[in-house]
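Hello,

Following up on my earlier ticket. Below are the two sequence lines again, exactly as submitted.
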Amino acid sequence: MSRSTIILAVLVAILLTGPMFIVVPMSFSTAPSLEFPPPGFWLGYYRRFFSDPNWTGPLFNSFAIGFGTMVLAMLFGAPASFALMRHRFRFRSAFRMLVLSPLIVPHIVMALGYYSYFGSLGLVQSMTGVILAHTCLTIPVVVLTLTSALANFDRRVENAAAGLGARPLTTFRLVTFPILRPAFLVAALFAFIHSFDETVIAIFISGRDSATLPRQMFNSFQMEADPAISAASSLLLAAVLVVIGARWAARLVKPQPARAKA
Amino acid sequence: MAVELTRPALAAEASALPARALLVTLLRPPVILYVPAALFLAAFFLVPLGLVVWMSVSDPEFGFGNYATFFASRYDLAVLARTFQTAFVVTLASLVFAYPIAYVAARRGGAVGGFLLGVVALSFWTSFLVRTYAWMVILGAKGPVVGLLTALGVSPPPRLLFTTFAATFAMAHMLVPFMVLALYAVMKRIDESYMRAAASLGARPLRAFLTVYFPQSLPGVVNGATLVFITCLGFYVTPTLIGSPQDKMIAGRIGQEIEQLLDFGAASATSMILLAAALALFTLYDRFFGLDRMWR
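Thanks for your patience. The regenerated structure is below:
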């Protein structure tokens, strides 16, 4: 591969990421509106972000809704993954379609559906409503993650446990789950992030008291009223950087075994 | 003989305790594993989706009036055409940017590959809202691009924000990571020895790439293009925030029909048209490639 190809790829990659970082200087800017370069720097927007209930409320709600979604999506998604990968049953392919279909339907369509459905159930503008909606959209994420882990799972270890006299539940607790624990953790993390990040449905069905962080950000963008948005954006960007940085650091410390080619 | 005796006995016991027999069936895998998820999705996914279908033909009156109105409206047809056109441009642009990144990352591991994948991951996991905000700053009236153009003597500087151009550009930028991951997944499995064989048979690098590597990477291109195109069809946040308020895309139009016009029938019909477009593309993909591979 020629050097120019590599340089091209690196340049494109930098162009891809570079623009995002403009939110960082903006968050320290003293300008009340979108002005770049900033006329001066201060920490005021961070102070505002962490003291204004218009921001702390949605931040808390997003964590609560993300956590609730994660628990529910794992409770429904993990057994569904085992059913799909390890059992033959009559409605298997229909069930598979059902589980994956939330990935296909555009969020705006579901937002409209939830808007009127939760209206009739009395769940509109409630956290419960957002959690139920997010769970549906997140189950496929959990199932995709766990089924691909299960596809690579060597069932002979389970047979060995059974041969040694372990009952199915004991085998699951002592053998299957510990081996799959990383996949379960990743699936749960994906579920949380998926909910934490979801914007469209939250805009339409979360109310003033159950507003999520993305909804509050979206509304601020539209009004262009609250510059604390730049602090919120920088914090989200920082969170992603920390997670990716931590993974990178972990890989540097502990070299991973070469992965077998699929 | 013993078997002959026990079977009727068991059957008798089961019929004597039908509730218990039912319970045993329900608690046994796989029923206990898939029924809860199926019921949950039926109640909180299929029903609201069905509601949209129902509203599209029943609100305000029963019939296909909402669809007739959509297809008779020059405005709505323009929205539909613009949506497809934008999705096409976005898909093409993201492919052009993603291909070199995925190609180098897949063929050269090491520090360069790690850097490229790290950068893509950073962009992939950062919220659409944050990235849209970045483009609001960059393209804004007081932003660096306008500042640069003014300094270069362009006056008055062109309006960049709140245009279809801004939305298209930002969406292409946001969907590049999706495209890279789809391409990378396929490219990683292309056997290096083909390229060495091509080189040893005298093919120049460009020719080897075009005749040997590129055709093998096409499944990734199709995967990525389908994913990006369909995501783009239903994109709401970015076009609403930085796109042109007059020249809406279809998701923005649905939002407007819900929030400003309070016309649920029209919103539902528009939703069904968007859904039909997405489903048609997925079905086409499934026909030729199999849906299972889409998210792998």
